[in-house]
Amino acid sequence: MPSKTRKLLLVGVVLAGLGLAALMLSRGRVAPLAPLPSPNGYDDFVKAGQAVVGEFGDYPTFDQDRLRGVVSSNAEALRLVRLGLGRRCSLATDSAMTNVSGMLSELANLKRLAHLLAAEGRLRALEGRPPEAALAYTDAVRFGNEMSRGGFMINRLVGIACEAIGCGPLSKLVPALKPEEARPLIQELEKLDQGRITWGEVQRNESRFHRYQLAKRYFNPVLWVTGWWQSRAAKHKAEARHQVVVAHERLVMTELALRCFQAENGRMPERLDEIVTNCLAKVPDDPFSGRPLVYRPRGTNWLLYSVGTDGVDDGGRPAGRGLSASGDILFDSPW
After folding, report:
1. CA distance 75 to 48
2. Cα torsion angle, 155, 160, 166, 169, sign
3. What is the separation of C-alpha 187 from the centre of its chain, rounded to a whole number of angstroms?
4. Count of H-run helices and E-run strands, the chain
5. What does DSSP assign to residue 28?
6. Is 329 strand, coil or helix?
């Protein structure tokens, strides 16, 4: 690129940065957030995280005795996290902006709670109690969603990780569940999906945090625009991760509903909308296409999938690991 062109481009970037900053600052104070819930389930999550004892990050390798010891020694943490799940939740957004290090420390503890719930689920599965295992895994999924409320992009990324910790093993349990065991699970997943935190909420909180940082620092337009451009790619990746976990959970929910329909009607549905009212309130949308999940009867079975991050229908060819992998997402696809 010629030197003159680079200089003009730099000037344009600086002017754009000044314009964007002036626009943000001209808006004055951000509208106040909604009052925090009282009691606030997020406070219970924090207490639960502080109550966790022991190391069990590699719980999938534990036998029943070790898992039983983990669950028993963390009974209070499990009680508190479920107490929080029964309440409305929200991070104290404004307070978190002024104490980022404290918030990050909390997030590390919260992720341990997801592992704890999944460890309980694995114990129940090894004990031959798949319905209880499924509920424990579902609690981990619900926890990841609820702990994200009021948070910034980093909070949502940890929440997504927590949801994946629960949803991965939950998908493996799907074939083991009878219709009467699957129905309560479908209702829980559908309720979660209807009240799920949206990416728009995360973006608003992240923008709030950036405005706070902008207001308290000396403004350098070049550094500001450079930082904005670098964070733009990170935001796109984070949004894709959010959509992937939504797709996985909707696929698990719909797969369970299809199996219920087949068991109760002696046949598979010809169209996905046949399971509506009987098993689901509505046909779930694919977060990557905005259209219903793809359903294709195949002989005595079916294909159910999301088109995935590339937005291309590959006929049910499973995608590999990673956000850039081409292919479709199935309910039991690898994370």
Report:
1. 10
2. negative
3. 18
4. 11, 2
5. -
6. strand
| Residue 89 one-letter amino acid | C
Residue of 253, 243, 309, 312 whose CA lies nearest to 283: 253
Q: What are phi and psi of 311, to 5 degrees?
A: 70, 10
Give dist(CA 335, CA 329) in Å, integer.
Answer: 9
CATH (residue range 239-335): 3.30.700
Beta strand extents in the chain (DSSP E only): 294-298, 301-305
pLDDT tens for 262-307 read 999 999 999 999 999 888 999 999 999 999 999 999 888 999 999 9
d(CA 242, CA 239): 5
Axis crossing angle, helix 153-173 with helix 221-265, rounded to the nearest 10: 20
Query: How do strand 294-298 and strand 301-305 relate by DSSP bridges?
Result: antiparallel
The SS3 call for residue 324 is: coil
Residue 69 CA to residue 119 CA, distance in Å, equals: 10
Sign of CA dihedral 129, 131, 134, 138: negative
CA distance 126 to 86: 27
Confidence of residue 14 (pLDDT cuts 50, 70, 90): very low
Asked if residues 177 and 134 have their Cβ atoms less than 8 Å apart, the reply is yes
Tokens coding 164: 């994946």
Report field, pTM of the whole predicted structure over 0.85: yes
Nearest-CA neighbor of 68 among 134, 139, 137, 120? 120
Helix %, strand %, coil % of the chain (to 5):
65, 5, 30
Which sequence spans correspond to the domains of the chain? 41-217, 239-335
Peptide bond into 130 cis (omega under 30): no
The span from the CA of 83 to the CA of 51, in Å, is 14
pLDDT-based confidence at 3, cuts 50/70/90?
low
SS3 at position 2: coil
Name the DSSP letter for residue 241.
H
Q: 186: which 2 tokens?
A: 């479908």
